[in-house]
Amino acid sequence: MKRVALFAGLALAAGMAVAQVKVGVTLSVTGPAASLGIPERNTLALAPKQLGGLPVQVIVLDDGSDPTRAVANTQKLVAEEKVDAILGSTITPNSLAMVEALGDKETPLISLSASARIVEPMDAKRRWVFKTPQNDTLMANAIVQHMARNGVKTAAYIGFSNAYGESWYAEFSKLAQAAGIKIVANEKYAPTDTSTVAQALKVVGANPDAVLIGASGTPAFTPQAGLLERGYKGRIYQTHGVANADFLRVGGKALDGTLVPVGPNLVAEQLPDSHPSKKPALDYVRVYEGQHGAGSRSLFGALTWDAWFVLDAAVAKAAKSAKPGTPEFRRALRDALEQTKDFAAATGVYNWTATDHAGLDGRAVVMVRIQDGAWRLAP
Question: Alpha-carbon distance 130 to 303, whole Å?
Fold first, then answer.
């Protein structure tokens, strides 16, 4: 396991060491999801060097986009490093595995993955689990509504053969049926597949009005390329799992016209001034692109940024009643996270409660159209 200490804050007060908060992170910095994990890691490097006014040590591990490694990282962070909280992982299969691995360890986890299954149904394990990404239900609903407004009557689905793809198909098919949209094909592929010829042929043969690709990162372009090569002319939708600059780079002009539900930060400048996420989104974009260049912003980086600042507010509350590094502090931190209310961030407005550890509403979703390598608000 690769370990990177991003930063450690040290402070002294009245000659005594101030209690230090310890945060463990596991991200998919390598492997198929690297285009998502790298901006998450880059974002953490730009975050403030303290949490809740206290010095912080952050330990970042790479899970290689592999659930087994994500579990090993989680166990190391809890058992050996004794962290106060964990952020990660980048993708749904890893986060689901981490939830199971944590079990009764009573360590708060803020996931950076989308599936509602990470925080639902609420049980003893998920009491300790929160997440910053929009639920797949929220994003799928935006896609189906856009399809319905634009006269789509039939649709096909091509998705990952893992928890992400399966979860997306479950939500999409349910909402599509309710909207009167008929699903005429359902195809699967692995994130590591370099060709989806068979799947593309079946979908093109079904001749749907639109296709939704339920995948993430740059591997999401593989089926889209296959569809275009075989002359598909209908609408193509992608999930928010592609909302990063690498996807635009890999797809190039072939992506023009692609429709994607994303978080506000991706089109921060295009938002109305009344949008609650406009200012925090612009703040994040300024910091991230100031370091990594124009157009480098990523939904996944913003989700990490939001997780950091929600955690910052919770640490400030928890530290009033317990000392970092203790079970009492971790319990107080969990309780504080659950009391997050009307927290306007780059991705949306968070309202976490005892029954909702996702806490985002429609303000966290905008539909965009990819054009000339950029994200544009879609009509």
Answer: 12
Do 136-262 and 3-134+283-363 fall under one CATH topology?
yes
3-134+283-363 CATH, one of 2.60.40.420, 3.90.226.10, 3.30.230.70, 3.40.50.2300: 3.40.50.2300
Sorted by where each begins, the domain ranges of the chain are 3-134+283-363, 136-262
Say how many CA atoms lie within 13 Å of 91 toward its Cβ. Answer: 34
**How many angstroms separate the CA atoms of 48 and 19, rounded?**
17
- Give the homologous superfamily in CATH for domain 136-262: Response regulator (3.40.50.2300)
Measured CA to CA in angstroms, residue 235 lies from 209, 211, 214, 250, 283 at distances of: 7, 6, 14, 19, 33
pTM of structure: 0.87
Tell me how far apart the alpha carbons of residues 302 and 300 are, in angstroms, rounded to a whole number. 5
> What is the pLDDT tens value at each position of the chain, 379 positions in all?
444 445 444 443 333 456 899 999 999 999 999 999 999 999 999 999 999 999 999 999 999 999 999 999 999 999 999 999 999 999 999 999 999 999 999 999 999 998 999 999 999 999 999 999 999 899 999 999 999 999 999 999 999 999 999 999 999 999 999 999 999 999 999 999 999 999 999 999 999 999 999 999 999 999 999 999 999 999 999 999 999 999 999 999 999 999 999 999 999 999 999 999 999 999 999 999 999 999 999 999 999 999 999 999 999 999 999 999 999 999 999 999 999 999 999 999 999 999 999 999 999 999 999 999 999 999 8
- Alpha carbon distance 142, 124 (integer Å): 31
